[in-house]
Amino acid sequence: MGVFEMKSIRLNASLSALALCLAFGGVIHGVATAGERTPAQLAAAARDDAAKASKAIAKRNADDAVRYAELAVGEQPQSAEYRALLGQAYLMAGRFESAGTALKDSLSISPGDGKVALNLALAQIAEGDWQGARSTLDSNARSIPVSDRGLAMALAGDPAAAVNLMLPIARQPGADAKLRQNLALSLALGGRWQDAKVVAGMDLSPTETDKRIEEWAAFARPTGRADQVASLLGVTPVSDPGQPVALALNAATPIVAVAAVAPVPVAPAPVVESAPTPPAAVVAAFVAPQPAKPAVVFGPRAEVVQPLPVKAVVTPPLQPGVAVSPVKSKNFVKPLVATTTTPGAAKVVKPVVGKGNYVVQLGAYDSAGVARDGWARASRNFSGYAPQGMPITVGGKTFYRLSVGGFDEAGAKRLCSSYRAKGGKCFIRTAAGDTAAAWTKK
Q1: What gap in Å lies between CA 343 and CA 402, rounded to an integer?
Q2: At a CB cut-off of 8 Å and minimum separation 6, what does 396 contact?
Q3: Which of 27, 35, 111, 156 could form a cystine bridge with 133, CB 3.0-4.6 A?
Q4: Looking at residue 270, what is its pLDDT?
C-alpha cells in the first residue's frame, strides 16, 4: 500500500477498493479441451488469459474480466492466484455469491492471504452473512491491516468492536489519515456522530467534514443487504447464477475450456433506490480508474437472528466500549445526531409497561453492538417501544438478546405476527431478566 495523500481523499475513490486488492492472474484461449493440451500449453494459456482478465479489471470491464478469469481457472484449477482473480472479477460484476465461492476456494488452496480474506469478508457481508464475515476477519486477523479489518468489522455489524480495535492505534504517533477516516466511519456506523465528526475533522476542513458526515448519514441507512458493499466498490449487484459447476475446486469431471465462452446474461434485481454516495474512509489501495458512478441495484437485507432457548445462564452486563474524548474547536459544528440512536432509527423512549410478563424477541446477536445495529433496522416497526436486551451464555458462547416487552401473551403474539407479516423474524417468550438495552443506558 502506498502512503496516503490528502489529495487522494475523494468520495468516489476512497473506499472503492476494500475488496478489489488481490494479485492479478491469467487465462486460456483456443478451442481444444484441457485433455488435448500439454501441461505446459495449459499453463501458458492460463497466464495469457489471466493477463487479459487483469487488464479488463483495470478498465472496469466486468464481463471480460469474468470470462477470461473463468477460463484461467478452468485451465489451472489448483491455482489460488487465478481463483482469487476470479473472485475479484465476480465482485466487480456484482456477483457476490460467486465471488464468495471463488475466494473461499483460493483460501483453501493457499491459506493466510490477507487480501483474499478481506475480499471474502466483503462478499459475505454483501450476502448478509455477517457472522461468516466476522469469522473470516478473525481467522485472518494477522494478515489484514488493522484499518481495513476494522472498517470491515463495522460493515459486518459490529462497529463497537471496530472502534475498540482502531482507536488505540489511531492515538499512536504516526497514525495515518486512512486509519482515522476508517475509525470515523466506524464511529458513525455505531451512532457516535459527535465523535465521528471530531475524528474526521482531523484531516478535513470544516466544510469537508460537514459534507462527509451528511454522506455518512445516508450511507448508515442501508435498505438492502448488499447496498453498502456495492456502494464502496462502485458496482451494481445482479441476480447471480452462481459459479459454473465445472470450476468447482474438486470437480469430479474433467474441465473443458472453450475460447468462445460468453458471459452468462443475468437480469438485474428490481431497483430500490439510488446508491448512497460512498463514504470517504480510505481502504486498501485499488489502482483501477474510477468510472462514472452507476446506479446500484439492491437485494433484500437479511436480518441476523439466532433464536435461542428460553432457559439460559445470565451473564453480567457487557463492559462499555472505549470512548473518544470530544475535542473543542471554534470550527466545531453540532453533529447531525446527538442522541444514542442511529440515523433513521426510532428515538429511545421509556419501555412500554404492560400487565403481562411476555416479550417479543427480535434476535440474539454476537454482542450488544451488533444488536444495536439490528435494532436500528427493526425499530421502524416498533414505534413507541424501547429496545430491551440481556446477555446470555449458551454452549459456552455469549450472546445478546434483543427484545421489546411489557405485554400479555395475546398482545405479544399480535405484535410478533404483525412484524412477521412485514418480513421480520421474531418469537415470544416470558421475560427472563430483560432490561433496557445496553446502548440506551447513560
Answers
A1: 19
A2: none
A3: 156
A4: 34
Distance CA 98, CA 240 (A): 7
Amino acid at 380: R
Q: Is 71 left (phi over 0), alpha (psi -120 to 50) or beta?
A: alpha
| Predicted TM-score of the model (pTM) | 0.56
Q: State the first-to-last Cα distance of the chain, in angstroms, to the nearest integer.
A: 41
297-315 tens-digit pLDDT: 333 333 333 333 333 333 3
The one-letter amino acid at 85: L
Residues 6+ apart with CB under 8 A from 414: none
Query: For residues 363 and 261, what is the distance between their CA atoms, to the nearest angstrom?
Result: 45
